[in-house]
Amino acid sequence: MVKKTGDKENTALLISEKEMQDRENKYVQHLQDVSVSCGYIREATTECERLDQEKAKQDHWEHFIRCDGLPRPYIPPEMRTFLAKKRHYQQFDCDHSVDWTLSVDENTILTQNVFRTDKTRNTMKETMNDHVGDRFENDITMFLDTLVKIECMLDNETEMARVSFETKMEIMDARKEIEEEIEASFDRLTYRIIRMDGVYMNSAQAMPLWPLGVTYANDMPSISGDCVMCPYASIKCSHL
Fold it and tell me: Nearest 5°: phi and psi at 228?
């Protein structure tokens, strides 16, 4: 074997047999190192695929025993059905919501009838408040949990290898619809709160509503005459 020098004459020099043998040994050692590394990579890949399969089976089993109403991310029709149901119930709540403040009657406490019905604002708020925020919070939480399950599935190569290309595209479309539905849910909640602000909003610095017949002296109320909140003006009540 010869090796070239860097001079202008470009002459070739012979290398010794020992040096040639050393180079061959280094090359063979390099091939062996590459072969061992490839073996480690194959073992790691096989182990990763096995773990992905076990994780997919575990996720399927946990979904079966939870029965939490969340759709399975590898079935796009199930996710679309889930979205349609949530849209329907949210719209139904918005269309059939009742302003319970219309039933408020503060005068119901101004009676000695033991069978009276307390319709003051505080009582009506406790008994008729529909807690719309809790329902929307539950829906949005379910949307977010579904997105997390979709992301976990997309990261699982073993799971994705079992679905067709068309199904993958449907899963991506369903994920986009869920993201848009989260924004639409906030819009519906905002519209419902603004539409009935007296039901869902509480003023932080509300001005007290004094009964008629109240005059003010030095910014303090002073009551003169009978209380107009009572059914009989001649009866002395606690408002005076």
Answer: -80, -5
Contact criterion met (CB below 8 Å) for 216 and 208: no
Q: Identify the weakest region by mean pLDDT among 58-62, 144-148, 165-169, 234-238.
A: 234-238
Number of structural domains found in the chain: 2
3-state SS class at 222? strand
User: 56 with 78, same domain?
Assistant: no
**Token pair listed for 128:** 């008729």
pTM, two decimal places = 0.56
pLDDT digits (tens, 9 = 90+) for 153-185: 888 877 788 888 898 899 999 999 999 999 998
Percent of the chain exceeding pLDDT 70 equals 70
> Does the pLDDT value for residue 67 go beyond 80?
no
- Verify that 154 and 169 share a domain, yes or no: yes
Map residue 223 onto helix, strand or coil. strand
Q: What backbone torsions phi and psi does residue 182 show, to the nearest 5 degrees?
A: -60, -45
Nearest of 138, 171, 167, 176 to residue 152 by alpha carbon: 171
Is residue 131 a contact partner of residue 184, using CB atoms and an 8 Å limit? Answer: no
Helix or strand holding residue 181 (H, E)? helix 165-195
DSSP 70-87: PPPTT-HHHHHHHHHHHH
52 within domain boundaries: yes
